[in-house]
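Q: What does the predicted 3D structure of Adapter molecule Crk look like?
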Amino acid sequence: MTHHYTQFGIIEQPQQNSSHNIVPFDPYNWENFFFGLIDRNDAEALLKGTEVGTFLMRESTSEEGYSLSVKETNDRVNHYLIKREQQEDGKQRFVISNNVVFVDIPSLLSHYKLRKLDSTPLIFPLGRPSIEKVIGRFKFEGERISDLPFDRGEILEVLSKPEERWWMASNCLGNTGLIPANYVKIYEEGDEISLQNLSSKSSGSTGKRYSANSVESNNNVNEQQQSNK
């Protein structure tokens, strides 16, 4: 049994079935459990067989904004509309179905992590399935808050490929962000050992957003320097 702390005290919850991809509940990394444009039927199918309190975020199919789909009981999933509204002060606010207003999505999720929406608080975020596993060819430090820094030899899971050169990925801690596609390769068994055995001089990134061509050019320069020694 696991324990979930709410304003109502400690709630005991059974462990999830291992077949369900439950991710860490970090309101500031809600992209981990955001499924994009799927309808309520798809959401209910994804939540089938999960424990009460399991939830996911998705784009609303009826109005501009998001929907929060929550497993409220063993046989019921509720869907809560989260509308984006422009306030008089010019700032954007998020209004959930019960007309409670929040400054951003993390604030909303944090609120209902401790309080019930209907019959349960938010407990188990259902994670998006990964497309593939990749491993870092070079160290990437990142330069923007949307980037996901990683080390050479670190294994990541690709969640989506919004651009040809920049992919959305997550690490073993559940953190998500954009990674440069040319800094990683498809993961194969034993890749960690192979990369560890390579000279550390050939690795590294300053964290700048180099193109694929510039990385290849740098590698060619390194090889030329080695041959001249």
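A (community wiki): The structure tokens above were generated from the sequence. The first helix runs from residue 40 to 47. The helical segments are 40-47, 105-114, 191-197, 212-228.
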